From TrEMBL, chains A, B:
This protein's name: Hydroxymethylglutaryl-CoA lyase
Family from the record: Belongs to the alpha-IPM synthase/homocitrate synthase family.
InterPro entries linked to this entry: AIPM/Hcit_synth_CS (IPR002034), Aldolase_TIM (IPR013785), HMGL (IPR043594), PYR_CT (IPR000891)
The keyword Metal-binding belongs to this UniProt entry's keyword annotation: yes
Source organism: Jezberella montanilacus
Entry GO MF terms: acyltransferase activity, acyl groups converted into alkyl on transfer; hydroxymethylglutaryl-CoA lyase activity; metal ion binding
Record lineage: Bacteria, Pseudomonadati, Pseudomonadota, Betaproteobacteria, Burkholderiales
GO biological process, one term: L-leucine catabolic process
NCBIfam families: PRK05692.1
Domain of life of the organism encoding this protein: Bacteria
Keywords on record: Lyase, Metal-binding, Transferase
Residues in Pyruvate carboxyltransferase domain copies: 5-276
């Protein structure tokens, strides 16, 4: 039996947030629908932040309302605080991704509060969600940014990652995301951090969110797979970065990640050719956005059989 | 104790051979000297092929003669046949990299002979080298191209890789190189192939030569490290490809590889900052060559301490 891997598209949020040109709502929806049709089961479609702060997400309500109509798609959105969480609940989004930084400096710069206050905020958000009527409670995710390095502080201690992972779980997280926000991680560090978190946090999905800022993104995925991680964030064409992390460039490239996993015989559920096709629509909508990725240039290997067909043939 | 990793620069051969503009000999030598000064212990400086076939290597003699004067540098060159081997021996090069393809079609296209004839050629080359006076015998390396996929045949059987690895060792190879010439490999396949080769070929250095054509290069390095491989080919700025493999782009990026290994706490012996500096000279010499690499764009992480200093501080 093939191991099932869950991929989550974050390009519409992490990818677009640093891009100053607004992507028209109709183009965002075309992207979301096409990627859902390609087999992507989960997409982070927007962020519930004030449009004054990030104009790119001025259409958060429309994008959410339309996305949750797509059959079979799990629709997620980022929230920085209670206000965002309340908006998400009102809109009926399926999953809320709360984010705090493991590095104190990055947390202060990103959400303007100490880490302990972020944990307290998260606790209140969980309480608010639990007050909702059954069937209207979104999945609540605790996200740990800068867990593998910080562009202000440099190395981040593994102890702190574990401390805040445990804090978010104790506060009521349904899932965790451990993020290399600025692309500092190497495979040994990934193994060390994920093993340490997994030793303390069990029976809870833990996703890896890597950036490819220094070329190590897919190597880090390999290391995380070795630890048993099966949930990965990525963005089409490697769009992305962090507006508050100087020097950071894109997320790992979804189609390259998907090719690697499929080639390894893992079941992503995603159609590689359809995935690569979507790049054209993104490029047409935002001609000045930086597109990354090797597979789109090189194409699939000669006579390449997707994992699903290889298994069927075997 | 830190694990020692040997990196080998192949950009002057694998990188330049597909580039039609001749890099002046003086620029090649500046590159080689600068990289040796950065701590690179082994460089494949040229290829002994007829200049009519690849004009880039018209200065093979001068480059070899000057390179072997650089103290502490192991100077290697590629050879396609006996004629190339004889030139190498005459020039006093330290190491000869013989290359054949595991895929029959690629071998026919690349060196215009069946694989079995290539093995026979290699046997004769080894015999010729052994006839040389002691102290004048270069190290002879058996290289297996398309060992992880072929742009003509697609997947390549692991059995064939092992078969030709054993054949080259039996014929007298001092070392092996197992190459993903066209960038088809994934980490699982790397583990499978290298484990299979290592099971049959012991007590002999085996190097991995990966291309990053589909973005999996450093992930494949991680997988090879897991198997115990400690010798890696790469090229500065990811220059390279194979003229006979349609669609193939560059080798893995030396400076990104070096950053990943150093970050993992492995001892490459190479100074990362000096390495990145050399890119400028290459770009100045060949303004139209495609330069790849993430580290050069993003820079080292904040407060980054090289592995050597981390160990000293610990």
């Amino acid at each position: 039996m093939k191991q099932k891997i869950t991929l989550r598209e974050v390009g519409l949020r992490d990818g677009l947030q640093i891009h100053s040109t607004f992507m028209p709502t109709v183009d965002k929806m075309a992207w979301i629908k096409a990627e859902a049709a390609a087999g992507m089961s989960e997409i982070e479609v927007t962020s519930y932040v004030p449009p004054k702060l990030i104009p790119q997400f001025a259409d958060a309500a429309e994008v959410t309302e339309q996305s949750i109509q797509i059959p079979g798609l799990l629709v997620a959105a980022l929230i920085p605080n209670m206000r965002g969480a309340q908006r998400g609940v009102e809109l009926g989004v399926h999953k809320l991704n709360f984010v705090m930084s493991v590095s104190e400096t990055h947390n202060m710069k990103n959400v303007r509060r100490p880490r302990e206050d972020s944990v307290a905020d998260f606790r209140e958000i969980v309480a608010m969600i639990r007050q909702q009527p059954e069937g209207q409670r979104p999945i609540i995710v605790g996200g740990l940014s800068t867990a593998l390095g910080c562009s202000y502080e440099g190395r981040v201690s593994v102890k702190d990652v574990v401390k805040y992972a445990v804090a978010l779980v104790e506060a009521g997280a349904d899932e965790l995301v451990v993020a290399d926000t600025v692309g500092y991680a190497d495979p040994n560090q990934v193994r060390e951090v994920f093993k340490a978190v997994l030793a303390e946090v069990k029976h809870l999905p833990i996703a890896a969110h890597f950036h490819d800022t220094r070329g190590t993104g897919l190597a880090n995925v390999t290391a995380a797979l070795d630890c048993g991680i099966v949930h990965f964030d990525a963005s089409l064409a490697g769009l992305g970065g962090c507006p508050f992390a100087p020097g950071a460039s894109g997320n790992i490239v979804m189609e390259d990640l998907c090719f690697m996993l499929d080639s390894m015989g893992l079941d992503t559920g995603v159609d590689l050719n359809k995935l690569v096709e979507i790049r054209k629509a993104i490029a047409a909508s935002l001609p000045d956005i930086a597109m990354h990725g090797a597979l789109a240039k090189a194409g699939l290997p000669r006579n390449y059989l997707p994992a699903s067909e290889r298994l069927a043939a075997a």
